[in-house]
Q: What sequence folds into this?
């Protein structure tokens, strides 16, 4: 037995350790560690390059006033990701597969098409973020940064060939790198901690522009691909035998979601707090673009702080771009049961980014447009997820009850309403907002 465990892969050993924890043979931290991974990967979607731009704009314009919005957005994300993981654990299928099994074929094909569009829009934002970081840090053209980003993310995705654990650990290291960079940024430029604590819990919307920015933070934070992906990451990861073990597995998963997305939320709060501390000074209040923030940081805090900012952006772009491609695999295989080689999937999702930049488009404007596309597509996975987790024929005894369903519907209605508001604002529709 010991020899067979020694010959097992890292993923196999993780699965064995997880099974022992479910049967009560492991306690404390040793019981928790095997279950850490899926939520960490999903959390990358909540600190991608799009979040960098939004948090910089919020901090530079409104100081700490919109920190409570970041907290609210993460609470919403925790609920949706917990439900997605629950779906995969209980059914052994991911969200896209369950849509194929339970919805009419025309609906499934339509959902697949719009979800593929979302996957490409996601990769556009994340791929460009990593490329911008490499371009600025290394002083190379943006197209060269895109090529390097493509090579790096493909190498990262190749880890999937060794099972689930290597890529989980690698992405965890990248998430930790982002966190360390922002921790050091806060040491270099410490914020007003009293203001941070107050505005994390005190709602404040100073004017109409703040309302719209708050809508953007929440509406564009919940990414469609992350909802699809999390159910795929948990569906076959650690086997649970019987409802008792399945219930314990859901408990471990919920704990991981809270911890992983809690860390992602703290990183987002650090982004906004750093921008508030550095840029909200009456001179740099208009800073809204990633490139502008980088060039402004150099004279204000020095090259070290600007370098940390770029390193965190590169780590964010590489990890989130890889996660976007993983989500695209889940979407295609789930909806239409069609498999393509990983290199082709990576190539297909990269092409729109190269086309956009080759045509001379502004990278930041491209990021904004991609967020609007994601807002349009978001109803597809959210509504499907809530519908399926309520069904007893799908979830058995783990179907959501009346209170859970009411909360899920309320969160879904909130996010979809805010996304609609964001889309209308982007299209130039005048809205009766305060201010």
A:
């Amino acid at each position: 037995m010991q020899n067979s465990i020694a010959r097992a892969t890292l993923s196999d050993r993780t699965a064995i350790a997880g099974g022992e924890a479910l049967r009560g043979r492991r306690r404390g931290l040793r019981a928790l560690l095997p279950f850490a991974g899926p939520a960490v990967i999903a959390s990358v979607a909540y600190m991608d390059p799009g979040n960098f731009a939004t948090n910089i704009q919020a901090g530079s314009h409104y100081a700490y006033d919109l920190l409570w919005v970041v907290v609210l957005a993460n609470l919403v994300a925790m609920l949706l990701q917990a439900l997605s993981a629950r779906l995969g654990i209980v059914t052994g299928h991911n969200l896209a597969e369950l849509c194929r099994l339970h919805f009419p074929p025309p609906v499934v094909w339509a959902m697949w098409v719009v979800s593929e569009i979302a996957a490409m829009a996601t990769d556009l934002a994340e791929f460009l973020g990593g490329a911008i970081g490499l371009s600025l840090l290394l002083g190379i053209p943006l197209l060269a940064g895109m090529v390097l980003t493509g090579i790096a993310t493909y190498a990262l995705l190749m880890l999937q060939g060794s099972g689930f654990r290597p890529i989980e650990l690698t992405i965890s290291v990248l998430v930790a790198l982002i966190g360390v960079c922002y921790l050091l940024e806060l040491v270099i430029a410490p914020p007003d901690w009293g203001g941070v604590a107050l505005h994390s819990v005190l709602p404040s919307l100073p004017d109409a522009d703040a309302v719209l920015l708050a809508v953007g933070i929440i509406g564009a934070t919940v990414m469609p691909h992350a909802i699809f992906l999390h159910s795929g990451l948990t569906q076959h990861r650690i086997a649970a035998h019987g409802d008792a073990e399945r219930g314990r597995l859901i408990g471990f998963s919920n704990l991981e979601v809270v911890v992983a997305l809690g860390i992602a939320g703290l990183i987002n709060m650090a982004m906004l707090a750093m921008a508030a501390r550095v840029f909200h000074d009456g001179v740099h209040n208009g800073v809204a673009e990633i490139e502008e923030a980088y060039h402004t940081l150099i004279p204000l805090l020095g090259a070290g702080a600007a370098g940390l900012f770029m390193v965190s952006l590169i780590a964010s772009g590489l990890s989130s771009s890889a996660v976007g491609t993983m989500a695209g695999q889940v979407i295609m295989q789930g909806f239409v049961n069609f498999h393509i080689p990983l290199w082709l999937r990576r190539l297909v999702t990269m092409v729109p980014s190269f086309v956009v930049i080759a045509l001379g488009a502004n990278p930041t404007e491209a990021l904004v447009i991609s967020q609007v596309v994601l807002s349009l597509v978001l109803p597809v996975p959210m509504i499907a997820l809530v519908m399926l987790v309520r069904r007893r024929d799908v979830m058995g005894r783990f179907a959501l009850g009346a209170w859970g369903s009411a909360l899920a519907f309320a969160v879904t209605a909130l996010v979809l309403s805010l996304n609609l508001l964001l889309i209308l604002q982007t299209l130039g529709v005048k809205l009766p907002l305060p201010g």
